Amino acid sequence: MTEKIGNEENPLRKEKRKKLEELRALGIDPFPHTFNVSNQICSLIEKFKDIATGAQLKDEVFSIAGRLMTKRPMGKASFFNVQDESGNIQIYLREDGVSETDFTCFKLVDIGDIVGISGYVFKTQKGELGLFATSFTMLCKTLEPLPEKFHGLSDVELKYRHRHLDLIADRSSLEIFKTRSLIIKEIRNFMDSKGFIEVETPVLQPIYGGAAAYPFSTLHRSLNMKLFMKISPELYLKRLIVGGMSKVYEIGKNFRNEGIDRTHNPEFTMMEWYEAYTDYNYQMTQFEELVSSLAKKITGNMIIQYQGKEIDLTPPWRRLTVHDGVKEYAGIDPYTATDSELFAKIKTFAKDIEKAPLTGEMVMMLFEEFAEQHLFAPTFVLDHPQEISPLTKKHRSKPGVVERFEPFIACMEIGNAYSELNDPVDQRERLQEQESKRVVDEEAQPMDEDFLHAIDVGMPPTGGVGLGIERVVMLLTNSASIKDVILFPTMKPH
After folding, report:
1. Phi, psi of 20 (to 5 degrees)
2. CA angle, corner 86, sides to 80 and 88, nearest 5?
C-alpha cells in the first residue's frame, strides 16, 4: 500500500493513471455501467469440481466478475486469478481466444482492477479448475495499488483503519463478518419463535439511562435542546411493557463515551429483551438456551474453541453469587468482613483511592479484581449489591442484594439481566439516590420523571436481559478483539 492514500506522486499510481488514459484513448470505457454476471465463482467450483483432469467443457459459457488478484503473463497468453465475494478461480486467456479489443484491454490491466470474464470451464493437467476466457471486460480501472501482504503490527492497524483492504486481502476476515450477519439472523429467529416483537427506540434521547455510562451529547438546533445518544434502550422498552406489549426486543446501536480496549468500543450493538410475568431465574434458563443453540447452529457444536481453549456451552451453566465469588477468589468473606477490612483489601490494588466507597460498591470492586479473571467457563454471576443496581428488584430472600445476573464466558461479561424493579415508590427512591451521586459520578443514572410516570401507571413483574452482540460474535468466530468483529471500529485520526 502507498504511504499516503491518494498520493498522486506515487509511481505506481502514476502508471495506473497512464493506463487509464490509454484505455480512454482507445475508446474503451474503464468504468462501464453494468455487466451480466451468470454465476458466482463458488457455484462454478461446486458444480464442476468432479470433472476429469484435462476436460474442456466448450459447449457452455459462463460469466463471472471480480477483482484480479494475480497475473502471470506468458507472451500471447496469461494465467490470472479473479476473486469475488464467494471465492477465487484461475482464468486462462489467449490472444487468439478473445477479440483484439479485449486483448488490448487485458494488456492494460493491473492487479486490483475489477474485471468481467466470459468463458468455458476446464480443468488443468494438475487438477485445477478454471475458466478459458472468450471475452474480457474492464469494469473498474483502479488507481490505488493493493497492499502486497498483511503481517505484523502495522498491518493490524491497516486492517481496522482500511477495512476494504482487509476484506480484499484476508478472506477469513470476510467470513467473520458473514458469520456475524448469520448470528444476528439466528438470534432474531430464536426471539421470533418465542413470540417476541422486535421494536425500535430513540437513538437521540432527552435523558439517558439504563446503564452506568458517560454519554455522547449533541444539540438539536431547531429546538435549542441538548440530546444524548442512547446508552441503553432499557427505559423505553419498559414503557412498552407498561403499555401492554408483553414480549419485546431490540437489536441496535448503543453509544458510551468510554475507553477503547479488547472488549470495548464506544459504538457497539446490543440486544435487549423484556418479558412480562418472568424473573431473572426464568431468563437465566432462556439466556443459556439462546447462546448454546446459537453455537450449535453456527459452529455445529455446543463445544467451541476460543483462543486455544475449549468452552462447553451446554446448559446448565455454573451459578456463582457475587459474595461467594469474592469469598472464593479474593480470600475475604463479605458476609462477615467489616467495611474497614474490605477497604484494606481494596487498597492492595487501588492504592490511590482515599475514601471507602459504599459496602456494596467495595464488594463489587473486589469481585471484578479477583474473580472475573477466573470465569472462562460459562458462568452466571448472581445477586449483585443493591447499591450498584438502581433498576433491579431487591432479592426476595437475601438482604442487601438484588435479583440480577451477568453471564461470563472466556472471562468476558457478555450480558446483564434483572428481575425488573416495578415498585414505583422504591424506584423513585433509587433514582433519587442515583441523582444525588451525580455531583461526583457523572455515570450515575439521572432522574427521569417520564419513566417514573410509566412505572406509576403500572408495570407487571418482568424479566429483562441485555446481550452484547460483538462479544458473542467474538466467541463464535474465535476472534481475540472486538475490532475484529466491528467493520468500522472507532479509531484516532491517522
Report:
1. -60, -45
2. 20
AA letter at 269: T
Long-range pairs, 160-163, Cβ under 8 A, ≥24: 160/483, 160/489, 160/491, 161/491, 161/494, 162/1, 162/5, 163/487, 163/488
**SS3 sequence of 285-341:** HHHHHHHHHHHHHHHCCCEEEECCEEEECCCCCEEEEHHHHHHHHHCCCCCCCCHHH
Alpha carbon separation from 140 to 9, 20, 113 (Å, rounded): 21, 10, 6
**pTM to 2 decimal places:** 0.92
* Domains in the chain: boundaries: 11-140, 169-317+377-484
Residue 119 in 3-state DSSP?
strand
pLDDT digits (tens, 9 = 90+) for 89-110: 999 999 999 999 999 999 999 9
| H/E element, 21 | helix 11-25
Question: Burial of 320 by CB count in 10 Å (0-12 exposed, 13-18 middle, 19+ buried)?
Answer: buried
Topology (CATH level 3) of domain 169-317+377-484: BirA Bifunctional Protein; domain 2 (3.30.930)
Architecture per CATH, 11-140: Beta Barrel (2.40)
Distance of alpha carbon 185 from alpha carbon 192, whole angstroms: 11
Sort residue 228 into left (φ over 0), alpha (ψ -120 to 50) or beta. beta
Residues 381-397: tens digit of each pLDDT: 999 999 998 889 999 99
250 strand-pairing partners: 272
* Bridge partners for 99 per DSSP: none
SS3 at position 425: helix
